[in-house]
Amino acid sequence: MFIGFTENYISNNYQKKIVGYQNIIEKRENDMLEKADYLIQLHSELKKRCENENIKMFEINSDYEAEIEAAYKFIDNKINLLK
User: Fold this and answer.
1) How far apart are CA 70 and CA 52, in angstroms?
2) What is the DSSP string of 3-72?
3) Close Cβ partners of 44 (under 8 Å, ≥ 6 residues apart)
4) What's the pLDDT score for residue 30?
5) Residue 5 confidence class, pLDDT cut points 50, 70, 90
6) pLDDT of 2 higher than 90
7) What are the tens digits of pLDDT across the range 17-65?
8) DSSP label of 1
9) In terms of residue numbers, what domain contains 15?
């Protein structure tokens, strides 16, 4: 399972929400994330790989808090299946 951002989300939230919420390790290790276009490319490639490998991918498009809930529910369901 992967979680990514759509081009729409990256374009509309790059500076304030993506760069603004990076933790110190991400800032140190991922200088390439300084460019929104590069991040859009990475997420597009990840989505294609997930589709090709039949791996579940959740995409955040506009409302991070609301949309991440689907990923949390997916994880909870997988955990419940293991019980």
Assistant:
1) 21
2) EEE-HHHHHHHIIIIIITT--HHHHHH-GGGG-HHHHHHHHHHHHHHHHHHT--EEEE-S-HHHHHHHHH
3) 7
4) 58
5) very high
6) yes
7) 787 777 654 554 555 566 889 889 999 999 999 999 999 999 999 999 9
8) -
9) 2-82
Q: How far is CA 6 from CA 9, 43, 45, 56, 62, in A?
A: 5, 7, 11, 15, 8
Tokens of 41: 């490319």
H/E stretch holding 82 reads helix 64-82
Q: Could you tell me if 6 and 61 are in contact, meaning their C-beta atoms sit under 8 angstroms apart? A: yes
Q: Dihedral of the CA atoms 72, 76, 78, 82 (nearest 10)?
A: 160
Instruction: Count Cβ atoms below 10 Å from residue 21 Cβ, excluding itself.
Output: 10
Domain count along the chain: 1
